[in-house]
Design a protein that fits this description.
By secondary structure, the chain is an alpha/beta fold. It contains 15 helices and 8 strands. It has helices spanning 26-31, 51-63, 86-96, 121-126, 142-153, 176-184, 201-211, 233-242, 247-251, 272-281, 286-298, 305-315, 321-329, 337-353, 361-396; strands at residues 17-18, 39-42, 69-73, 104-108, 132-136, 163-165, 191-193, 219-221. Strands 1-2-3-4-5-6-7-8 form an 8-stranded parallel sheet, with no helix packed on it. Helix 2 packs parallel to helix 3 (86-96), helix 6 runs parallel beside helix 7 and helix 7 (201-211) packs parallel to helix 8. The longest helix has 36 residues, at 361-396. It is elongated and about 130 Å long.
Length: 398
Amino acid sequence: MSYYTSDSSDGESEAVVEYNEDNWWVLEDIEQNSPNVKKFEIYPSYKVPPPDDFIPLGTNIGNNTRLTYFHLCGDGLEDDDEIASKESLEAFCEGFSRNGSLKNVLIEHFNFHRANLATLHPFVVNNDNLSEMQLHSCKLEAADLEQLADAFRRRSNPSSITTIGIGGPSITDDSTHAIARICDYCPQLETLDLSQSRIGDRGAQELSGAVTDNETLKNMYLDGNPQITPGFGWFGFYLALGDNVSINATYQSNHTLEKLGKGDDDRTGLPAEVMSLLQLNRGADKTSVARKKIFHNHLGDNFEVTPFLDMLCSDMEEKLLPSVLGWIGKDWHLVTCEDQRTRLSTFFQIVQNVPSICSFSIVSQLRAENASLKADNASLRHENEELKRQIEKLLSQK
């Protein structure tokens, strides 16, 4: 069974060509760099090329400049099948790795722990067009992933990568350190698929730490990892998405991650608190998302206003408090009645503790300035009268 239920296309309209007994000519088209084949996949449920064709196919793909999508599925193959042997897979990848046109590469159910994954490294490092790399159920272990992370680190165009999939039973807590490194080396990564793996609480904690400061990753698929528990593994994501230790921590938390599973949130087994934060993150206006999280975590019925005001007044002058109130009241017509009630309660507590915020301080300042001007004017009139007397005295002496 393939992990991929839809075409991981790059927006092009060409159909995916499947290798089977009815279109054996596709191998020749790939060798001849024909524009007729841009998306190609091989499933054992259709037909697998014989070893004598499989190894040259890797070389022909490496020389091809038309292909943009390639899916190789080894589901149903046994380890002793000649096409799945270490020698065949390495020879295929050695030729395949010279390709520079592929954007989407999906390989599953091949043993890359037995074969040398390093044969794929030149492809990862040098293909500037690559946007999606999926290696599901390829029996990758922690040491293999560390090597793969080094290949991503050396990529000439790291920003092209938007989707990575590294799932399967061999992916455990020991794998997550290398996976976190791969995320760091892909600054535009939007989707990370780790589904159907054996990641537990320790690995989930490491992954949640990796997303805290990430501003591009929208989807991290962790469904099919039943060892992650609400009190430990998923709690790490709760802190990453809306750390409630302080208002500043909540503001600095992750407002980008939207999904932790491919299906509905409640079907992934997520705690309600995590689901709520993920749903908030789906808002387009991230400033508004941060505001709602602050209300949710800090400005509820049990809101203690004194620490909030102490923090506020220590960092800024009191004259900026009206701007804070304006921030709290923003988008009033877009929130629920319950949120409006919470905001009114917050307004009341702040005004109750800082009544000077409602005083007419500007009017008082203008009155003081006016009085000062009147005093200056009276002084000038007095000086003017004195000058007139001196002038009259001088004129009378002539």
